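note to self: dont lose this again. the chain is below, predicted strucutre after it. 168 aa total, dont forget to put it in the shared folder this time
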Amino acid sequence: MLNLIKLNGLLMNGEQNIIQQFFNAFKKLDATTMNACYTNNIAFNDPMFDLLRGDEVRAMWQMLCANASNFSLEYDSIKDEGDGYYTCNWTAQYTFSKTGRRVINKCKAYMKIENGLIAEHSDAWSLHKWSEQAIGLPGKLLGWAGFFRRRIKNNARKNLLHFMQQNH
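---
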């Protein structure tokens, strides 16, 4: 039997509710609640960090939430795709700390729910558009190039590993 919850006049099942709980916590930069929505062996993927698992995912959200500046988030369109898979659109606005530039990142989340928790989470967005906003002209001109994208990803991974060493 499906566990249904009424939210904003719409009936949502328990699986959609965990997605709402995740994004409502994200709006508040509450990494603890966000991470409580995940299974222990969560798999996460996005254009910046590529594939992360378990504690790496939890540390990424802790790091991003702790470092967020002038942050706001909106989400909508939670859609049941069947077999425990859901999609959701979300947009984050924030100031990128390294450059002080404003970023508006439009994303699509793909999530798999197992036993009431998020077991898989992938976010799709344009790294080129992000780099143009966050870095400026070099990002606009080179954000499509493999070497430039690798530099961005390597910096993100390095920052995550440093954060994990300092906080765990």
